[in-house]
Amino acid sequence: MIGEQKIQHPRIQELRIRGFRSLANVTLRPVPGANVLIGANGSGKSNVVHFFNMLSWMLKSRRLAEFVTREGGADDQLHGGNATTPRLDAEIKIGTDTGQNDYRFSLVYAYPDQLLFADEAFRYSRDGLATEAKWHHLGSGHREAQIVRAGQGSRAEQASNRQTARTVTYLLRNCAAYQFHNTGSTSNFKKTWDAEDHAFMRSDGGNLAAILHWLEHEDFDRYDLICRHIRRVLPGFGNFQIEEQYGKVALRWRPYLLNKTYGAHLTSDGSLRFFALATLLNLPQEMLPGILVLDEPELGLHPKAIALVGDMIRALANSRQIIVATQSPLLVDAFELDEVFVLEMRNGCTELTSPDSVQLQTWLDEFSVGELWQKNLLGGRP
Questions:
Q1: Which of 1, 30, 267, 376 could make an S-S bridge to 163, C-beta 3.0–4.6 Å?
Q2: Domain edge (last residue) among 289, 324, 351
Q3: What is the Cα 205 distance to its own chain's centre?
Q4: Residue 311 placed within a domain
Q5: What is the pTM of this model?
């Protein structure tokens, strides 16, 4: 089995979800680069993002029970409630340069309003083998994922199983979901932050000031690139003005040709979100996760900013797999038809389909992908 240091270009090959919120029975087979989930409000796009959030709570901090409580309880996580769907099943296949790593789990409803593991298993299948490897099971009845402990090793575990569990955990932890929607008074954008918290961007962008402060002093060319991108959308923007005081930093910026500086509390919602997006999508490779999931990055942005975000996503997709949930035809215009997946709500369930590129080829000669969506030729009306 390969070690973590040799893993390159991880990519989700298949994701199956059964019984999570509106995702009664959904299978997503994303392409290696950019993937765009489109659909109307309430079609289930955000539930796909929330599934990745649940994975993060399960594997990064081993706090699935806390995630369930924060999200309204176990009954709210199950499609139609536990009376309709008492069990949640998921399987994720992640490919690397040498083979396929699989992880699956089943969660069942239990009193009082909690989820317990009914099954948890993993395996690694090396490329070139005629058959897939056998699953290694981790038992049932536990409240938190056991694959993390399986990778930490014990005498009862074979060395190959320990390494496989460690690698699967690493790959899944290296998949991060981002949502920069909260720009209100409680937003982390508007709080002081630990200056040393700059290794990677938090899911809500709360450590943006710490990252920009580090880039300005350690990777100025990249910092300058981010500022130039921002000026393309906000011509009055000069530079960030972030200073460390007692180990803390706060987000402040200076307008062009003015000595006055502005904090996050005096910055528009759209500007704050664009600051975060421009920074995330231009981070050094070592500061990025292997797989990025973005939830409606267009929210509150000017059309010019949306187009630029689409260009930056496309550029980053050359080195990372990215999954974007959006309802913006302008953002969809940045992508090819075979990168688009349509989500629609039917009879209370999310259905996921791929547009027929052959059938739509004649239309593509005259219209962009976003325009086809606006004309309702792709489904999932914007």
A1: 1
A2: 289
A3: 13
A4: no
A5: 0.93
